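Input record, target 12 of the design panel.
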């Protein structure tokens, strides 16, 4: 076999390893998905009436806010699953398994590739679960089949980019505990964008940050695909942000992975 075939075969083996870990230890997956569901229920049933009225008048209320909120919650889900990847990578780096892998005749790139692809699969599952809960409590998207397919692509794209970033953070962390904390800001960035309230309602300084941070165009793209709101240039900006994050994070992770794995 060629070197590319060996790399693909080894990456497939590492992917199966990560998927088996996900099945064997479902508690982490449930925790990562459970947090966005709690946010969804909290904001819809506690704050939804008031915030929904702010979107379109007193007659609109909770249902309108659920339609507005759902894309932001899906983005929180993607970030939360990526956070879990940082923990998994740090566990590998601190347990000695990476040092053992390096003594074996396997492609070095396959270890990180298995983590990334496994995390994207986990992201798609998590988003499907959270979306199912949103549908159960009244979310009614009007997306066409083509828009649903585009949404799937956006979720995979964002998950891929954030996962590579969290892989780098997991490699950077000295302990598993610090690996769980380093990516935490990613989970809360949607709160400082258009995920929970319109950017126009924010104070001037925060409004500027919210408008130009990466999660706002991603949220607007997902919202437009699900509910038919205007997307404009948000899709292009989201693609550029994700491509930049993925490329820089991949190069950073590759450099960190080349170091001595002993902590």
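The sequence produced for target 12 reads:
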């Amino acid at each position: 076999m060629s070197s590319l075939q060996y790399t693909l075969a080894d990456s497939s083996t590492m992917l199966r390893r990560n998927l088996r870990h996900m099945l064997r230890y479902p508690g982490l997956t449930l925790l990562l998905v459970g947090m966005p569901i709690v946010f969804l229920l909290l904001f819809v049933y506690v704050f939804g009436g008031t915030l929904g009225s702010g979107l379109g008048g007193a007659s609109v209320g909770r249902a309108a806010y659920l339609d507005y909120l759902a894309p932001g919650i899906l983005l929180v889900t993607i970030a939360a699953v990526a956070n879990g990847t940082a923990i998994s990578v740090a566990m590998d780096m601190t347990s000695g398994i990476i040092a053992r892998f390096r003594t074996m005749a396997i492609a070095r790139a396959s270890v990180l590739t298995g983590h990334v692809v496994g995390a994207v699969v986990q992201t798609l599952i998590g988003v499907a679960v959270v979306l199912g809960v949103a549908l159960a409590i009244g979310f009614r998207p009007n997306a066409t089949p083509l828009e649903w397919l585009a949404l799937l692509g956006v979720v995979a794209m964002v998950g891929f980019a954030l996962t590579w970033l969290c892989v780098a953070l997991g490699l950077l962390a000295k302990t598993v505990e610090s690996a769980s904390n380093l990516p935490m800001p990613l989970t809360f960035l949607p709160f400082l964008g258009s995920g929970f309230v319109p950017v126009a309602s924010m104070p001037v300084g925060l409004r500027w940050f919210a408008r130009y941070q990466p999660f706002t165009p991603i949220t607007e793209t997902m919202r437009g695909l699900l509910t038919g709101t205007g997307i404009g240039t948000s899709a292009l900006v989201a693609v550029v942000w994700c491509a930049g994050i993925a490329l820089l994070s991949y190069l950073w992770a590759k450099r960190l992975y080349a170091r001595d794995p002993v902590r």
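Residues 62-95 form the longest helix (34 residues).
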